[in-house]
Amino acid sequence: MLTHNRGSAIEVDLLDRGSYNISVRLKYRNGATVIRLSQAGAVMFPEEKVMNEVATMRFLMDQTIISLPLILHSGTKQESPLELGSFIMMEYIEHETKMYAALNTPDCPIEVRGVLDPNIDEGRLELLYSQLAGILLQLSIPSLPRIGSLSQIDDFTWDVTRRPLTMNMNDLVQRGGLPQSKLPDVNTTFDTSSSYMEVLADMNIEHLIHQRNDCVDPVDPADDCRRKFVARKLFRKLAREKKLTNPLLEKGPFKIWCDDLRPANILLNENPARIAGLVDWEFTYAAPVEFSYAPPWWLLIEKPEFWSEGIEDWTRVFDRRLKTFLKAMKDCEDAAIQKGRLREDQRLSGPMYESWDSGQFWIMYAVMHSFAFDEIYWRKIDPRFFGPTKDIEGAWKKRLGLLDEKEREEMEQLVARKLVEMETRVLSWDPDEYTLAFREKLECEKKSESRKEPRREHE
After folding, report:
1. What ranges in 377-432 are assigned the alpha helix state H?
2. CA nearest 386: which of 399, 367, 372?
């Protein structure tokens, strides 16, 4: 039986299984708690993820008034119930729905990707957007000295001591074939925005090199590989030349950024429609301020690369809804400034408009979404830096002259290798730390068995 200092649980419910966690709700006579376990196979760095998330949540509870579940306990796989995985035990926040349901198209089937209701009442949308704006505004106020994940030093002190563990990093390893050895070392932090952007650009190159089998278009694999190679090399060139970030913001101060902050993780009370709390602070870290200055892509719920009418139509619809969001943001800022909670130079509405208007938004989106990188690069980033082209699919041929001879040779070697891999279809897999531990346990047991004296048959 599961127990807590409130006594024995009278009811145990398995909540919805998310992308990275499995949550169990324990009901007591005087409330409820949640045990959230990292999902094996989905989270490649479960112990690190939980450690980062706990430190972040405690930091935010100290530094902001964002409603978060109170952490009661957390631990490693060995400390969890039945050793199922690293976990967090927290208070359950009572709520009626999620922001996702409030924004989504009515009667949208669960199996269909959600999209912002095109007929949503403008007043209701502004009410919901204003609350989202308030959350982002609070996250943007604390400043941190480096880029990376937080550690709690003592009850009231935090520091940036480890690599920024991002959702993109996890996904590149979990489903992109990227070896964990190609990620920044766990103790790595970054002092400048440009150095971090360069590492992200390198990571995209490594992703192309190591991803197997269907990573290129089977119809025209050679040229598709060249197209992807050119995009990644030119993006890294821009990163090395420090053209992807604002030099005035090069050394920070850096801001809290949550990769998984989106409507599906925002708990809501329906009448009135008010935020009850925010959950899932995994993959949260101190990031370049340009991340915070980019308007949130999730205003439309759906990502641009999955928009049914294409990226250009997503851009058109987003531009319209962004006006509503920025109006709500400005109203939030005005109220916070009047109450002395915000300075004039801490506004987000201006920088967010600038990021969208200049195209900086797309650079931030591309480095955080590697699986959408190619479409975003050729449509939104390449024309900004290297000039417009009518032939988006063939633009890479015009950019070949921007690569040096060594890079072009490297490209052809990669093309030859990818063509061979498409035929051999060798499995590429980098197991998570739990799988590695289990394999090590099996090997130890096998060695132990082999050292035992063989049993003799009785005559």
Report:
1. 382-386, 395-399, 405-424
2. 399
Distance from C-alpha of 400 to C-alpha of 230, rounded to nearest angstrom: 7
CA angle 181, 185, 186 (to 5 degrees): 120
DSSP class per residue in 59-122 = HHHHH-----PPEEEEE-GGGSGGG---EEEEEPPP-SEEHHHHHBPTT--TTSPP-B-TT--H
Per-run averaged pLDDT (10 residues), the chain, 459 residues = 58 80 86 88 92 96 95 87 84 94 93 94 95 96 97 92 97 92 96 98 95 69 94 98 96 95 94 91 97 98 96 98 98 96 96 98 98 96 94 94 96 92 67 62 69 51
Enumerate residues 6+ apart whose C-beta is below 8 A from 387: none
Which structure tokens are listed for 207?
């992703």
pLDDT digits (tens, 9 = 90+) for 291-321: 999 999 999 999 999 999 999 999 999 999 9
Nearest to 15 by CA among 279, 301, 302: 279
117 contact partners, CB below 8 Å, separation of at least 6: 103, 104, 105, 106
Pair of tokens at residue 436 = 């590695």
DSSP 452: S
Token representation of residue 132: 């989202």
Helix (H, G, I), strand (E, B) or coil at 281: coil
By C-alpha distance, which of 63, 392, 388, 394 is closest to 220?
A: 394
Give the tens place of pLDDT for each residue, 119-173: 999 999 999 999 999 999 999 999 999 999 999 999 889 999 999 999 999 999 9
Show me where the domains of the chain are located: 96-424
Residues 6+ apart with CB under 8 A from 205: 232, 233, 236
Return left, alpha or beta for 456; rule: phi > 0 is left, psi -120 to 50 is alpha, else beta.
beta
